[in-house]
Design a protein that fits this description.
6-stranded mixed β-sheet, alpha/beta, binds 1,4-dihydronicotinamide adenine dinucleotide, binds magnesium ion, 7-stranded mixed β-sheet, Aldehyde Dehydrogenase, Chain A, domain 2
């Protein structure tokens, strides 16, 4: 068995150079499908390291801001090609460090990251302002200017894709970036950072590894960081917003969700069942902020829909993330595994709860070799239960039967979250009316798949603020508008 001493130390990226932590600390990166057996170690960045990285980004900003947007776009397109060429290698890294299965999740994530660079590279020339018609004697125009050094903090659940978004949006818009990877999933992000660094001037992108309370918190309060962009838990999101408030810097937050899935009585068929499985992100073990984790199933189709759902879920192969046949890998770490188990225990212990599939993880057999939880469905749930209100971030689908449309839309909106939502209904008029009444930043109608670059994505309520994934998101969240007024008289 490998010990931490024998594994490779993968450096950070600061000022264009491979860099270790000044104090010499390291963090072990483990494979959760092997109960966190060490696979590598990364530097444990502290405040001192954050300062150096921010300074490098600040220096690089002075010239990067003057590079023509289309030239910045061309660099993004070259990065996209290089990311595509390295996609398989990155996919294996992601699968190994996160436990996300290669075929359904890690490989599409690596390819999706290349696609993100390609999208933003393509729209770079659209970073334009407008003129304002205030009469013949005045020339008034707006410029979209970069903000400065961006502090980006990302989680482990989709690390390379979320990192690619922060990099592509900030850097294309002319900002420079200090990106802190999640301690559980830094390897794919570091690999991506090195690819970007082959094309970007030194210091435009800096990638740090370290703990949230140390490196993340130091980045959030750094006086030279002029914009904060965070993806992760609502709890940490609040602390980021506090840090931003102290210095009056803009902040984008992409936080959690407890997204409702409303299935109408006309939608009791295999396509919808497949869509609900996809929407719940079972092939990411439910570790997705957009997971459709509250299933509102019409009473009249409850039994027959669940029967089909169970047979689809039973067919999912849970196991080794690197095996091409695997549909579902492992939970990210022991802490999240314990959390998910506590929710399952709590949910099935409620009076009236019916466990339809899954439950507590197996106590013996191959699935005890990693943090595996099998697909779990609990029905006859009450929308007030903890399992129906809190983000579980595991493969646990909670089903609430309904019979009255007003009541189901009220329940769908009865949540402090408002990230995603799913409406399954053949009657398009009814479906769109429901979509418009649901308080979520993103509603999908008769579709359960993920985001596509080009549509703005972000939350209502405590799911966050700011938009990502689109040109408008980049303009709104990563540039600042300057108005110039010229007297022509
Ligand atoms: P987290 O919010 O603690 O971690 C996300 C990132 O924030 C990591 O890079 C971490 O190092 C950093 N961070 C942590 N504390 C920080 C601090 N005080 N200052 C600055 N940065 C800090 O999420 P965690 O603990 O990994 O997961 C807990 C729960 O959060 C999950 O069960 C899930 O409900 C939610 N979550 C939501 C995500 C989403 O995509 N919306 C992603 C990850 C977690
Ligand atoms: Mg945490």
């Amino acid at each position: 068995m490998t010990t931490q001493e024998e594994v490779q130390l993968v450096p950070m990226l600061v000022g264009g150079e491979p860099t270790l932590a000044k104090a010499g600390g390291t963090i072990s990166v483990g494979n959760p499908a092997r109960l966190n057996r060490p696979i590598a170690k990364v530097p444990r960045a502290l405040e001192d390291d954050v300062n150096t990285a921010v300074q490098a980004a600040y220096t690089a900003f002075q010239s990067w801001r003057r590079v023509q947007p289309r030239e910045r776009g061309r660099i993004m397109l070259r990065i996209a090609d290089a990311m595509e060429a390295a996609a398989e290698e990155i996919a294996v890294l992601i699968a190994t460090e996160t436990g996300n299965a290669l075929a359904p999740q890690s490989r599409p994530e690596a390819k999706g990251a290349a696609d993100v660079f390609r999208y933003f590279g393509g729209v770079a020339g659209e970073l334009k302002g407008e003129t304002v018609p205030l009469g013949e004697d005045l020339l008034v125009y707006n410029r979209r200017e970069p903000i400065g050094v961006v502090g980006g903090i990302i989680p482990w659940n989709s690390p390379v894709l979320l990192g690619a978004l922060k990099i592509a949006m900030s850097v294309t818009a002319g900002n420079t970036l200090v990106l802190k990877a999640a301690e559980d999933a830094p390897l794919g992000v570091l690999r991506m950072g090195n690819i970007c660094n082959d094309f970007l001037p030194p210091g435009v992108l800096n990638v740090l590894t370290g703990y949230g309370e140390e490196a993340g918190a130091a980045l959030a309060v750094h006086p030279l960081v002029r914009k904060l962009s965070f993806t992760g838990s609502t709890e940490v999101g609040k602390s980021i917003m506090h840090a931003a408030a102290d210095r009056i810097v803009p902040v984008s937050l992409e936080l959690g969700g407890k997204s409702p899935v409303v299935v109408y009585p006309d939608s009791d068929n295999d396509t919808v069942v497949q869509g609900v499985v996809a929407g719940m992100r079972f092939t990411r073990q439910g570790q997705s902020c957009t997971a459709g984790s509250r299933l509102f199933l019409h009473e009249s189709i409850h039994d027959s829909f669940l029967e089909k759902l169970v047979s689809k879920l039973q067919a999912l192969k849970v196991g080794d993330p690197l095996d091409e046949a695997t549909d579902m890998g492992s939970i990210i770490n022991q802490k999240q595994f314990d959390r998910v188990c506590q929710y399952i225990e709590d949910g099935i212990g409620q009076s009236g709860a019916e466990l339809v599939l899954g439950g507590m993880p197996p106590q013996n057999g191959p699935l005890t070799e990693g943090y595996y939880v099998t697909p779990t469905v609990i029905t006859r749930a009450n929308n007030d239960w903890r399992v129906a209100r809190e983000e579980i971030f595991g493969p646990v689908l909670v089903v609430v039967p309904w019979s009255d449309e007003e009541e189901v839309l009220r329940m769908a909106n009865d949540s402090h979250y408002g990230l995603a939502a799913y409406v399954w209904c053949q009657n398009i008029k009814q479906a769109l009316n429901a979509a418009h009444r649901i308080d979520s930043g993103w509603v999908q109608v008769n579709r359960g798949l993920g985001q596509i670059p080009g549509h703005s994505y972000g939350g209502f309520k405590m799911s966050g603020m700011g938009r990502e994934f689109s040109l408008e998101g980049m303009l709104d969240s990563f540039t600042q508008r300057k108005s110039v007024t010229v007297n022509l008289a």
